[in-house]
Amino acid sequence: MDEITRDVVVIGAGAAGLTAANDLRKAGLSVAVLEARDRVGGRLWTDVIDGAMLELGGQWVSPDQQALIDTVADLGLSTYSRYREGDSVYVGADGEAKRFTGEMFPVAASTEQIIDEITARLDAMVAEIDPDKPWEHPRAAEWDKVSWDAWLRQQTDDDEAVRNLAFATGSAMLTKPTHTFSLLQSLLMAASAGSYSHLVDADFILDKRVAGGLQQVPELLAERLGDDVFLNQPVRRIVWGADSATPDRPADTGQRVADLQALTARVEAAASSSDGVTVIADGITVRARFAILALAPVLYSRISFEPPLPRLQHQMHQHISMGFVIKVHAVYETPFWREQGLSGTAFSPYELCHEAYDNTNHGDERGTLVGFVSDQNADDLFRLSAEERKERILESLSRYYGPAAKAPVVYYESDWGTEEWTRGAYAASFDLGGLHRYGADQRQPVGPIHLACSDMAGAGYQHVDGAIRQGHRAADEILERIRG
Predict the structure, then answer these.
(1) Per-residue DSSP letters for 46-113?
(2) Domain match, 330 and 419 both
(3) Does 334 lie in the same domain as 206?
(4) What is the pLDDT of residues 194-218, one digit of tens each?
(5) What pLDDT sits at residue 241?
(6) pLDDT tens by residue, 347-376
(7) Among 72, 181, 377, 457, which is 20 to 30 Å from 403 by CA?
């Protein structure tokens, strides 16, 4: 096994880790980036499937994502607008597809008024939230104890209004059933985009794409690091702090208690120190002054820490979990919906595919639709055969676009739930009460170990923009410690 020494070792070659590594390199520090996969990018993955270039992971750039916009420009990449000319489609409770233009979809006047009123209420609440510190709001504890679904149903008994308001942060973003996460978690999701209105505005949140694919961002960042990026290197152990030794098995109960107390004292002492770290991967060992864990917190348990992480981290990480969504890609000979005067934008809280968009690549003669199936619906679909799953998904798309949607020339499902080094999508979030209880601690360094990923971002939460912001933050933390 090779052994190298660096100032900082970064675990994870996604946007967060590669941003941090580049910042540290520019500051004159030596770095090594260890990546478990055979590629860089993490949850960014642009691939060619059956001759079609598909964005299997994250892909959109919105106007508020300044960190991502700056990085895209710095790397010399170009963007283009998502196609949105023509009518959108909404399917209501009666199953009828209705075309519309403008921001409000076709619902009863009373439902529209309720949606407008609650949206205004939510915008006012979000305006009081600091996305980097939502737990500091005076009502944070109260808002973290009530589920998103329960709060909405306290506001109105109009079920269609509730469904449409709920799925913006539920199925569409956190990709969890709306009864499983809190109002505060939902407000954070909205605050990370600037407002609840931004979050429900597809023309804002899904504004542009990067020509050639968003995975180029981590690929080009990795190129700048050259041979300091090591692929196929899942990290198995991290030895950290001044004294990493663990006690032998005690011979008696008294000795066991004493050793446990000693271990606890060592963990607490190490957590406040900056003594070095040794990271052991499958084919390489890196000794460094600092480490950055640049991966989702749900994956921390895949690593053995010596000594163990402090009890706070052990407890916190049990209250964080990934959502789940199937990203469906359907490629057609032509973008036939455009000929029908449709923009490709379609959604319904009653459909299996709760939203879908024109995802045609820049300059491509073929047309691509992307659809999404989330949370419980996604779980249920994977209990079916692949053929039955495909049939049901395409049937759902056909309710928006007509029978032509049933006959794509390329069909593919992005299933991040089976991806060993991700385990869900789009990102991790807290359970009921977890954000207020642990949010302030999730980004705190542990001894020489710093943390960075989109899952713990404020602005840009769950997005590449948030990953980049967190990479900058972690690098700045280390530089501040070095400079004293």
Answers:
(1) EEEETTEEEE-S--EE-TT-HHHHHHHHHTT--EEEPP--SEEEEE-TT--EEEE-SSS-S--HHHHH
(2) yes
(3) yes
(4) 999 999 999 999 999 999 999 999 9
(5) 86
(6) 999 999 999 999 999 999 999 999 999 999
(7) 377
Question: What is the rounded CA–CA span in Å between residue 321 and residue 149?
Answer: 18
Burial of 350 (0-12, 13-18, 19+ CB in 10 A): middle
Q: Is residue 121 in some structural domain?
A: no
- The answer to the question of residue 170 being in a domain is no
* CA–CA gap between residue 64 and residue 216 (Å, rounded): 20
Helix%, strand%, coil% for the chain, nearest 5: 40, 25, 35
Q: Residue 250: which pLDDT band, with cuts at 50, 70 and 90? A: very low
Q: Are residues 280 and 344 in the same domain?
A: no
Domain hosting residue 59, numbered range: 45-63+77-103+201-210+324-425
Annotated binding residues for substrate:
372
- The token pair at 236 is 């198995």
Give yes or no: residues 466 and 414 share one domain: no
Q: How confident is the model at residue 283 (pLDDT cuts 50, 70, 90)?
A: very high
Which residues fall in the annotated binding site? 35-36, 235, 372
280 Cβ partners below 8 Å, 6+ apart?
Answer: 235, 236, 237, 238, 239
- The rounded percent of the chain whose pLDDT value lies above 70 is 93
Q: What residues form the annotated binding site for FAD?
A: 35-36, 235
Find the mean pLDDT for residues 398-423.
Answer: 97
For residue 161, tell me if it sits in a domain: no
**Confidence (pLDDT) at 261:** 54
